[in-house]
C-alpha cells in the first residue's frame, strides 16, 4: 500500500475567536490520517487578522493585502512538492480566499478545507442592539457597552452574525470544498470532532494513490464558481465575497466580474434573512438549513 502524505496549512492564532479552535486540529487530524495509513504534517502557517478588530485602527489598511500574503505563505508551505493532498485550516475574512488562491496555485493537489464552526449564541441580538443604541445616545456608559459586547462574543468560533467569516463557511460548503454539513457545527463538540476526522479520511480518498483522484484544479470549474455566487446571493451574505470570489475564480483560470453577480441576482431569490439583516434568528440552525438546501439545489 502506498502511503499518502498530507500537508496541513493552518491559520491558527488564539487572538481571534474563530481561529482559536485550530490549536488542537493538527494533532487530531494527524491521528485521523494515521488511522487510515496516511501521514499528516504541518507544512506551514499563515497570518490571520480580523477586520472587526482593526476597523478604524492604524492597521486596517493591511487587511486586504493580507489575503495575498496568505496565498503566498501557504504556497511556500506546499512548495516542497512532497505532498499528495492538503488540509486547510482557516475561516475568517481574508483567510479563506487567500487559502483557496494558494490551493489553486497547486491545482494538481486534492484539497479539503476544515472549518472551525460558529460560536454558540450569547446575548440576544435585540438586547445587543438596545445597549448599543443607548450608548450612542449617551444613556449607557462604556462599561455597560463592553459588558454587552463580551456577553455577545463570549466563546470560541466565528462571530454570532452572518458576516464574512460565516459567509465563507456557507460558500465553501456549497462549492464542495468543505465536507457537506460541516460548516455550522459548534467547536469543541463530539460532532465537530467526528467531522474533522471525516475530513482527514476524505482527503486520503481523493489522492492519486487512492485511485479516486480529484485535484482542486479539476473540482473548481465554472459551475462550482456559479454555485458559490448563487449561495452568496440566496443567503444575503457578505458583500466582501463579491470581491473575493473574483480573485478565487481567477486563481482557477475563470474570469468573472460584478456583471455576473448582477445577472445572477436577477434570478436568484433571497431565501432568508440572517442577523444583521434580521433582528433575531436561531443563527446556527437557520444557516445550516439554508446551506443544506443550497447544496441540494446546486
Automatic annotation (TrEMBL):
One of its GO terms (molecular function) is dihydroxy-acid dehydratase activity. Belongs to the IlvD/Edd family. It comes from the Bacteria. Residues 5-279 form the Dihydroxy-acid/6-phosphogluconate dehydratase N-terminal domain. It holds the Pfam family ILVD_EDD_N. Its EC number is 4.2.1.9. InterPro entries: ILV_EDD_N (IPR000581), IlvD/EDD_N (IPR037237). It comes from Serratia fonticola. Keywords: Lyase. This is Dihydroxy-acid dehydratase. The gene is ilvD_1. One of its GO terms (cellular component) is cytosol.
Amino acid at each position: 500500500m502506498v502511503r499518502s502524505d498530507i500537508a496541513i496549512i493552518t491559520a491558527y492564532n488564539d487572538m481571534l475567536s474563530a481561529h482559536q479552535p485550530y490549536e488542537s486540529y493538527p494533532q487530531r487530524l494527524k491521528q485521523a490520517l494515521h488511522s487510515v495509513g496516511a501521514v499528516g504534517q504541518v507544512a506551514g502557517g499563515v497570518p490571520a487578522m480580523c477586520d472587526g478588530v482593526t476597523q478604524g485602527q492604524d492597521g486596517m489598511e493591511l487587511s486586504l493585502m493580507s489575503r495575498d500574503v496568505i496565498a503566498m505563505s501557504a504556497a511556500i508551505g506546499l512548495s516542497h512538492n512532497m505532498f499528495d493532498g492538503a488540509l486547510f485550516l482557516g475561516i475568517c475574512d481574508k483567510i479563506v480566499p487567500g487559502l483557496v488562491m494558494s490551493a489553486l496555485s497547486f491545482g494538481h493537489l486534492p484539497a479539503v478545507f476544515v472549518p472551525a464552526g460558529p460560536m454558540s449564541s450569547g446575548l440576544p441580538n435585540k438586547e445587543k442592539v438596545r445597549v448599543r443604541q443607548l450608548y450612542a445616545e449617551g444613556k449607557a456608559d462604556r462599561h455597560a457597552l463592553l459588558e454587552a459586547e463580551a456577553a455577545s462574543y463570549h466563546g470560541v468560533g466565528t462571530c454570532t452574525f452572518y458576516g464574512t467569516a460565516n459567509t465563507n463557511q456557507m460558500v465553501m460548503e456549497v462549492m464542495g470544498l468543505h465536507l457537506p454539513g460541516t460548516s455550522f457545527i459548534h467547536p469543541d463538540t463530539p460532532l465537530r470532532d467526528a467531522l474533522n476526522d471525516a475530513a482527514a479520511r476524505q482527503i486520503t480518498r481523493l489522492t492519486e494513490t487512492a485511485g479516486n483522484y480529484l485535484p482542486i484544479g479539476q473540482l473548481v470549474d465554472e459551475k462550482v464558481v456559479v454555485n458559490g455566487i448563487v449561495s452568496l446571493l440566496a443567503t444575503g451574505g457578505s458583500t466582501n465575497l463579491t470581491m473575493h470570489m473574483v480573485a478565487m475564480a481567477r486563481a482557477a483560470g475563470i474570469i468573472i466580474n460584478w456583471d455576473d453577480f448582477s445577472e445572477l441576482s436577477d434570478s436568484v431569490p433571497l431565501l432568508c434573512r440572517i442577523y444583521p439583516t434580521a433582528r433575531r434568528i436561531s443563527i446556527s440552525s437557520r444557516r445550516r438549513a439554508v446551506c443544506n438546501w443550497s447544496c441540494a439545489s446546486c
